[in-house]
Amino acid sequence: MGDWSLPIGSLGEEVVAQLCELLDTASRGWRKLAEVAGAEKRFKCSEEELEMCSLKVLEPLGSPTQCLLQLLAERECTLRYLQGCLHRMGHTQACQVLSSAVHDVIRITVQPESQVVAEGTRVSLTCWASGPPGLTYQWFCGRQEVPGATAPELMVDTAAPLGLPQWYICRVSCGAAFAFSRWARIQVERSHSPESASGYCPSMAGLQILQQPRPCRLAEGDPLVLECRALGNPPPQYQWFRNRRPVEGARAPQLQVLQTPCLALHGTARHGVGQQSTAWGSRARRGAAEHGVGQQSTAWGSVVAPALHPPQVQLVTTAERGTYSCRVFNLFHELWSQEVDVEIGPRLFASGAPWQDGDGDSPEPGSPDQLYATDKVALLVGNMHYVHHKHLRAPMVDVHALSALLRQLDFKVVSLLDLRRDEMQMAVDEFLLLLDKGVYGLLYYAGHGYENFGTSFMVPIDAPGSYTSAHCLCVQHVLQRMQQRRTGLNIFLLDMCRKRNLNDDVIPQVGALEVTANIVFGYATCADAEAYELSQQGELSNGVFVTFLKRWLLEDEKITVLLDKVAEDMGTLELTRGRQALELRSNLSERRALTDPIRSLGQAETSARNLQWAKAHVLPESRHLRFDCGVTVQLGFAAEFSNIMIIYTRILAAPGDVTECVAKLTDLPEELDVDLKCTNRESPEELGSPLVPTWSVTCPSCCLYSRLCGLQRLRQELTFTVCLQYRYRHVADFVEERRAVSVGRPLIAKLNLSPPDPGKLPASGGSGSPLSASPPSSWGNSPEENLSPEVPGSHGV
Hints:
6-stranded mixed beta sheet; 17 helices; 37 strands
């Protein structure tokens, strides 16, 4: 039998090609698979992702099905879940292909173990695998094949000293398919090692693991017990590891997590928000502590109990999940147990029913443990094209990526790029109008920023060269106003630098915050450090923070646990290690998550909020313009962000005597950011925006496209001219007709964010295309060259 718990990423190229052939064009094809798989929230694809899949048909070797399977693989979809989806679709042939492939998957069942042996002994390494008939084995020492080592068992003769510890690995293959075992180390102790002095002969006794730990799936509050037993002479010692890091005090054969009273509080509230964490124990919060979170725990700590002292009260949280293993050793030998996964989910029912996969990933609606939001609202701001400071590249793609993910979580999202000081303030004011009792409010900011005396400031694009707090927005002031709205959860994700601003020596006067126990700050970097964005050749990419945040954002986790996972992931990036680390500040006392369902308090409040939000997201309706010459022009609209709109013109019909005609936009309002290089282009790609695939799929072909930025600056209705240029048969000269068009105040322009008479931005203040002002640089030749640290107060790398 095959292993259906493997991820779909384990499928071979031939199997994927067969599935693509069956699902790319069939009526029960890839779109139906996306719909069925989306029944579980973490596998639900956004409209943008589906559009990205559909555009693969335009590539010579592109496949929508393969793109969809890659998206599901990134979300750790298993073969069992994929098989269930295909079965519910009624696609028998695809089910058969997948079933036969699973039975042919090679899986290592017995891994070789590392050993420490005496010089002159013979060492046996074993690797067994399951899979299709005809499996072949090949052992390697380092990168070199071991001649003749083609059996599951490898005998290594240590009579000739091996010198440094040798590393061995086994490749198991069948045809083109293959799998590698894990590495095993053989370390040879020379004759002058301690065993010769003691008279003990390790080759006679050795060390053997009798009982391996087993993987387990638990609910919050369940006991966690792992056990590893070994036999050896001298008697073995034990050290448990979680995620390959030693667990403090876990030196017994049995690992247990328990709750026990401590004598004192741990840590202090070093930051602007006085955090009092309710997570159980210092080890459960280790990820946060490693990233500079000044947390003040309650008077309960989490410790690991030795087997001789069983606990009276046992408790685990989702923070205890991870991969566990045990190192077993004595004076002469060292062995490692197998690595096992401990999965811990939320408790589903008051009666204590266990956590299960599938539809039981989150508490059932109506259960006593379920928490609700009365609504969810997010304001995302990305500042890129600064007038007096270095331009940034990542905020546009960061804001767009988070917008798509938050919409999947039922957030009402307002996404804005390149705001001046007054515009940022008015955007926050409108955001606050959408908040009310029990609403989850999320503010994400990407751009230049700084932090003085524990107070954070967001820098608008029109800030002067030597800006101070008077030119910026104070994050803590926004928080105070959010608390006045009696929100259910206040989340701040600040993707900016937190260096000290030496031009600002004023100590911020921030009033006392209410003790609401619902505040979460996720900083992209630590205090007095910079945040970075990555440069990739030929394209824009997310900043470091969002690169890892978007991997976890859809998870059904308490928001603080989710950010802890992001912090752990960020720590694996070699380029920014020692330069940037996520910092979490929180006083959240309940298990609030972004995935919590919405239960509105009243129809009137919900309707008013929906209306206010919808005002900022209404596009003009497509219209047809008929000119005197008989030509009909279609005028259409698409949105990139709440303040960036695409207008396209298309010739629908023309009289027979008109041979050539084209419709262009002219006389666009001066207050908008309109780059002439981004108007009347023959293809969406010529607009220079990396987000073209997200909206161009809905646009017809044979159009002229124009990109309008800064809609928040419109002080009146958007009015422009459609200029039709055409030529009659056998006539050399073009004829021109013009038609004035007014489309009202589209998108965010309806909210009047711009002051009555704003000053114009200088010409250097940025163009309609973020790429034209600051082209992405290529990767350097060394890790140091691949980072571009910003000036103090900057957003990125």
